[in-house]
Design brief:
Blueprint lengths: L2 H18 L68 E2 L6 E9 L2 E8 L7 H9 L3 H13 L11 H10 L3 E10 L2 E10 H7 L3 H11 L3 E2 L5 H17 L3 E6 L5 E15 L4 E11 L7 H12 L5 E3 L2 E3 L12
Antiparallel strand pairs: 1-6, 2-3, 3-5, 4-5, 4-9, 7-8, 8-9, 10-11
Helix pairs in contact: 2-3, 3-7
């Protein structure tokens, strides 16, 4: 069976277990409760002690720049650069989803999501916003938004077809697994491979630390205003019409280079709840010599602000300054 089909079924089974599992907690006495009768002469000075709790509040996406749509279209907007990983932008999926779990299986990184609870944005508001960038962009968005939910547009695939395509992938790629049900699309999983990390100019340690610190995913495509229209058009056409495109990507150091993107989409019907599971693949082809493993190692040193190892009397001392509460996994 396809790995991505397994991931989708795992998260479905976990939800079923969570819904059916009952948690029983025995009542117990609060160990910090101090019992005394009102008006007694018991010393209550201990109750006046102030306990200071330090809690790090994670970075977040401001609500005023976020769209939430039934079609689950995720539009990149320029965000606070302090939340970015190097020169990388923030993956638009982080606007409307939080990561509830992530792990690595062989060559793939798998991120499991749940939607952030906020109202859906009226279609006209998004259309008007996009038209500020280009008059035709709002119309293209509206057509994509309305067409993507039509059931007559779906071509049902078999599990074998998805597995064969998955096995044929040799390049960098990202895949989104989404559920379509009752006129609404919800993203369940995103997976990328190690080649995708190389495309961004980062490694496993950098990715995990960034996710732990911010709860966000990095993204390798430019969201500058001059590239905005081409990027949005490529997303609309690529995701819906499966049209190959070429667009500028960016890595951790801010280098820009062309990437050829090949989209492919599959649907599987689930008769149990009358829903469709969509597998939306995006393969990326680029000149891998632009980003070498040596450069990625230097990027990690810059990211964690490490000091080089100092040799003293034939003893190597590991003198590292680790910021962002980095932990080894």
């Amino acid at each position: 069976m396809s790995n991505f089909l397994k991931y989708q079924k795992v998260i479905r089974e976990e939800k079923i277990i969570c819904l059916s599992k009952t948690i029983k907690k025995e009542k117990r006495k609060n160990q910090y409760t101090v019992e005394f009768k009102f008006g007694s002469d018991i010393d209550v000075s201990m109750l006046k002690q102030i306990i200071q709790v330090n809690q790090q509040i994670p970075a977040y996406i401001p609500l005023n720049i976020t769209f939430r749509l039934e079609s689950d279209i995720l539009i990149p907007l320029q965000l606070d650069p302090n939340l970015q990983l190097g020169a990388l932008a923030i993956d638009p999926i982080s606007y409307n989803y939080r990561i509830i779990k992530y792990d690595k299986h062989q060559n793939n990184y798998i991120f499991y999501f749940e939607p952030i609870d906020r109202p859906f944005t009226p279609l006209q508001i998004v259309k008007n916003t996009l038209e500020k960038y280009h008059p035709s962009l709002g119309e293209q968005f509206e057509l994509f938004h309305l067409n993507i939910l039509k059931k007559d547009k779906f071509t049902i695939a078999t599990e074998q077809e998805i597995q064969e395509y998955e096995n044929s992938i040799k390049n960098s790629f990202a895949v989104y697994i989404q559920k379509k049900q009752k006129g609404k699309i919800t993203t369940l999983i995103k997976s990328i491979n190690t080649q995708y990390l190389q495309l961004m100019g980062i490694n496993d340690e950098m990715l995990q630390d960034y996710i732990n610190q911010t709860g966000l995913l990095p993204w390798c495509f430019c969201n500058e205003n001059q590239q905005y229209m081409n990027l949005i058009k490529g997303m609309f056409q690529g995701a819906h019409q499966q049209i190959n495109s070429s667009m500028p990507a960016i890595n951790f150091n801010g280098q820009k280079f062309e990437v050829k993107i090949t989209p492919r989409k599959f649907h599987i019907y689930n008769q149990d709840d009358d829903s469709y599971i969509q597998f939306m693949f995006f393969q990326q082809e680029y000149n891998s010599q632009i980003i070498t493993q040596n450069q990625i190692a230097l990027n990690m040193i810059e990211y964690f602000n490490l000091k080089p190892k100092i040799i003293k009397q034939e003893i190597i001392e590991d003198d590292q300054i680790k910021r962002c509460k980095f932990r080894k996994i």
